[in-house]
Design goal:
Elements lengths: L9 H23 L3 E5 L5 E4 L1 H7 L11 H5 L10 H4 L5 E6 L7 E9 L11 E7 L1 H55 L3 H28 L2 H6 L1 H12 L5 E6 L9 H22 L3 E8 L5 E8 L16 H12 L3 E6 L5 E8 L6
Parallel strand pairs: 6-7
Antiparallel strand pairs: 1-2, 1-5, 3-4, 4-5, 7-8, 8-10, 9-10
Enzyme class: transferase
GO cellular component, one term: membrane
InterPro entries: HATPase_C_sf (IPR036890), HATPase_dom (IPR003594), His_kinase_dom (IPR005467), PAS (IPR000014), PAS-like_dom_sf (IPR035965), Sensor_HK_TwoCompSys (IPR050482), Sig_transdc_His_kin_sub3_dim/P (IPR011712)
């Protein structure tokens, strides 16, 4: 019997080679993906799993995948599908916690699809793509915390403004009226001893009025809203410079640089707290304030440095930081800024805060 020779055209070889190359690339893609891919049969037995899914869950080929924590406890009718993704055709994505072989569930985002059944086969395998959302949840919690802090600080500033106005319009005006009344009495009293006592009272009254004015300004920096952030910091520099400590301020920002009022208030408060901490606790001879924009003009760097006694830097856990530092850190976080501090005994203190000009990060 003559041998039968089958000849394949070059196009057949090219097609086969192309299919083989596609398969190789697809396999490489599955194995290199950072998202986990699990293919399960209707009994939830794994028929395919990529390395990312194994690293995330520990489940291997042939294992039966347990239900997520939500599906384990959700109420379903007898005989109904417990897996929410498999039961609800309109739901393609779901977040829950997936049991793992390592013991502790991991928060994941899951999306699903179904493979088309082969001809004559009614089994449809389900493909689940899993992604660890731990970092995303942490970032979301941080964003919520930042918004809450920002709102809290804004409420505080509103209350400070109200108290400042009450001090100015109420107590200050009342004290001024008393002062005028005492001056009127002084002009009509001839007794020298009473005049001396009135003079002493007037001096104490003027001192009290000055303290009220200082308190009012510290509660609400009206100068910040009247003349802008840079001028307000310069005014603060002049106010807090003494014979024992010089306060310096350098910036490359312009007065009309765009910065929202809420961001400007937090920056001013941070500078105010930083200078006062240096004056009260560090025995500094100079304090320098630097406010510079980044090369991309999107971020601003604030640096507060002194040559004081410094201190042993505690654990960065908030509970181990002093009130002043915690306050500055909270305000930096409220404007989406980073907070770094460098200090050691006898080496002074340097605080660096970098924040977006808008006070929010995309």
């Amino acid at each position: 019997m003559p041998r039968r020779v089958i000849r394949l055209s070059n196009s057949t070889f090219s097609f086969s080679a192309m299919r083989l190359e596609e398969y190789r690339r697809l396999r490489q893609l599955f194995f290199l993906l950072s998202d986990g891919i699990i293919v399960m049969d209707p009994q939830r037995r794994i028929v395919f799993v990529n390395p990312a899914a194994i690293r995330l869950t520990g489940w291997l080929l042939g294992d039966v995948v347990p239900y997520c924590l939500y599906c384990q406890t959700r109420k379903v009718e007898t005989g109904s599908e417990r897996c929410l993704l498999a039961a609800d055709p309109k739901r393609h994505y779901f977040e829950s916690e997936m049991p793992t072989k390592m013991g502790r569930p991991v928060p994941v985002g899951m999306s699903r699809t179904f493979l088309t059944a082969d001809e004559g086969n009614f089994r449809r395998d389900m493909v689940i793509t899993v992604r660890d959302v731990t970092v995303e949840r942490q970032e979301e919690e941080l964003a919520v915390s930042r918004r809450l802090t920002h709102h809290t600080l804004n409420v505080q500033e509103d209350e400070r403004k109200r108290l400042s106005q009450e001090l100015h319009d109420g107590i200050s005006q009342t004290l001024y009226g008393i002062s005028l009344g005492m001056e009127h009495l002084q002009r009509h009293i001839k007794d020298a001893s009473l005049t001396d006592k009135l003079n002493q009272l007037q001096e104490r009254l003027r001192s009290c009025m000055q303290e009220v004015r200082v308190l009012s300004r510290s509660l609400y920096p009206a100068v910040l809203h009247d003349i802008g952030l840079l001028a307000a910091i310069r005014s603060l520099r002049d106010e807090l410079t003494t014979d024992h400590c010089a306060v310096q301020f350098l910036t490359d920002l312009e007065e009309d640089d765009e910065m929202t009022a809420s961001v400007a208030v937090q920056v001013y408060r941070i500078v105010q707290e930083g200078i006062r901490n240096a004056l009260q606790h560090s025995q500094a001879r100079y304090v320098s304030i630097l406010l510079f924009q980044s090369d991309d003009h999107e971020n601003v760097l604030l640096q507060i440095e002194d040559d004081g006694v410094g201190f042993v830097l505690p654990d960065k856990d908030r509970e181990h930081m002093g009130y002043g530092l915690r306050n500055m850190q909270e305000r930096a976080r409220a404007i989406a800024g980073t907070f770094d501090i460098e200090t050691s005994p006898s080496q002074g203190t340097k605080i660096r805060i970098q924040f977006p000009r808008s006070g929010t990060r995309e």
